[in-house]
Design goal:
Layout (H helix, E strand, L loop, with lengths): L2 H17 L16 H28 L4 H14 L3 E5 L2 E4 L3 H8 L1 H19 L7 H25 L4 H27 L6 H37 L1 H6 L2 H5 L1
Antiparallel strand pairs: 1-2
């Protein structure tokens, strides 16, 4: 059996394993958990990022059609890894996001589209999240987290820090920032009894025990996947400029 076939089979097995998750009431931010006005506001806030993301993807694919497979793989990675959820608080959950990989390879704006597609499929097919809360979940997981991840990755790359350490830190902190935004969204909508700061702190404290180790695991997995891509998808990585940056 060739190395490529072996790696492909391992990835398929991992995808099946991670996709089989127990039914739980906890999700990203579940259907009906945010007031209608907040749902609309978060959705509108996402629109400029999504518009620019579509434009960015079109430009990349027009220049290099062979990147379609890599785009699809990045989207599948987000779908699989974010389906493994650990209940953390009523109305939400802790799970890895998987968006750091796409942000590092293609830039944060492109990941907004991949994340939106993943969240839409999860809401419809798996009952993770919801259609009314799609805007809020998109902003936290597909916009805020990836932009922080991409910014940290670029900043550390300019400092000539070890490439693997750079990827790990960027993916890990991007995951954590996603849940800071989720906690912020929940605190804004549900602070009538305790006040905003108390509600925000409460959500952060509840998320932390599960999200911190998950963020570390996501950083490690992202490094492993990038190493695999460097070995088996070098032409595509050259087209997006990743290998030139690495050198």
């Amino acid at each position: 059996m060739s190395k490529k076939n072996l790696v492909f089979r391992i990835i398929c097995v991992m995808a099946v394993f991670l996709s089989i998750t127990p039914t739980a009431g906890a999700m990203h931010i579940m259907e009906g958990y945010l007031p209608a006005g907040y749902c609309v506001a978060w959705g509108v806030l996402c629109l400029p990022f999504l518009f620019y993301g579509l434009k960015s993807i079109k430009q990349k694919l027009d220049a290099h059609r062979n990147l379609i497979t890599l785009f699809a793989m990045s989207g599948a990675f987000i779908f699989v890894i974010s389906s493994l959820k650990i209940p953390s608080v009523t109305g939400s959950c802790s799970h890895m996001t998987g968006t750091g990989l796409g942000a590092i390879l293609f830039g944060a704006s492109s990941v907004s589209i991949l994340g939106l597609i993943v969240l839409l499929f999860q809401a419809i097919l798996l009952a993770h999240g919801g259609l009314t809360t799609l805007g809020a979940n998109t902003f936290s997981m597909a916009i805020a987290g990836p932009f922080v991840c991409y910014g940290i990755y670029k900043a550390l790359s300019k400092l000539n820090i070890n490439k693997k350490a750079t990827i790990f830190i960027a993916a890990c902190l991007g995951d954590l920032f996603t849940y800071c935004i989720t906690a912020l969204q929940l605190a804004i909508a549900h602070n009538a009894d305790t006040g905003f700061l108390n509600a925000f702190s409460k959500f952060l404290v509840i998320f932390a025990p599960t999200q911190v180790p998950l963020a570390i695991i996501e950083g490690i997995i992202t490094v492993i996947v990038v190493i695999g891509l460097e070995n088996y998808a070098a032409p595509e990585l050259k087209d997006i400029g990743y290998l030139r940056e690495a050198k």
